[in-house]
Amino acid sequence: FFFSSRRRHTRFRNVTGVQTCALPIFVSGYDNTKFPDFELEIPNREYEFISIHPNGEDLLISEGGKNSGLLLFNLKKRSLFKYNISGNYQYTFSIFSSSGEKIVTVRRSLSKSRLIKDQLEALRTFEIAIMNNDGSNFEVLPILQDMIVALALSKDEKKIAYWFAKTVRGPGSQTFISDFDIKELDLTTKRERLFAGPFNFFEIGSINYLNESTLLISGFAPRDINTSIQDYAKKFNYSQIYRIQRDQKETPTPIFTKN
Q1: What's the confidence (pLDDT) of residue 86?
Q2: CB within 8 A of 68, min separation 6: which ones?
Q3: Is 251 exposed, middle or buried (CB count within 10 Å of its CB: 0-12, 13-18, 19+)?
Q4: Are 163 and 149 in contact (CB under 8 A)?
Q5: pTM, full prediction
Q6: N or C: which end of the chain has fewer CB within 10 A?
Q7: How does DSSP classify residue 125?
Q8: Could you tell me which residues come within 8 angstroms of residue 230 by beta carbon, excluding any fewer than 6 positions away?
Q9: What φ, ψ does residue 217 adopt, rounded to 5°?
């Protein structure tokens, strides 16, 4: 459930999909000694996120940096395909739908400025787009640009739930952004709303639909905990997994808190 990452010369940040694993990826049933025509570990390439297709063969790779874009790597053929979409954005989070027929991606405008002020301002330009898995019918969804971090597509592929941050923290803080909550976009009506809360999580991780009205999320320390962060973590045995219902107002507590 949790994101897995390993940092070496090349940055692999997060993996999700049918199963999660640490990178480099080795898959049973495939010739993992046969390398593709490109090198995944070229220094300074930034692989932000990987989603595994339901067929277990295709990997959707979100690449940032100067090579920003979406890549499709087939484990069986050891082949690489780059989607023909705008390169003027940084693609930070992309997933396959449950059927594998759709792709949903989070992207933001690239800032050419190196000033911290401008870089932080660019964090407010994230948007969500959806397309078919062959790259056709690319559509930027009609939501307000925001500090969007991660998302999930419902199993019926009619709703998108996504984490967004409300606070940009100054230099020297533990995190760049905080006070996270979840919005939900109805793809039929194109309307968005707060899924539950607000809870103002200090840190967050992944998000998944358990069913039509329930999310399973990873996060840490909703603002209304009435205790120190250290005591809160100990109280729930350091669990950072929550179950949240649509329209829930009561501050959630972690689940899976026993050893």
Answers
A1: 72
A2: 87, 89, 90, 91, 110
A3: middle
A4: yes
A5: 0.80
A6: C
A7: G
A8: none
A9: -130, 160
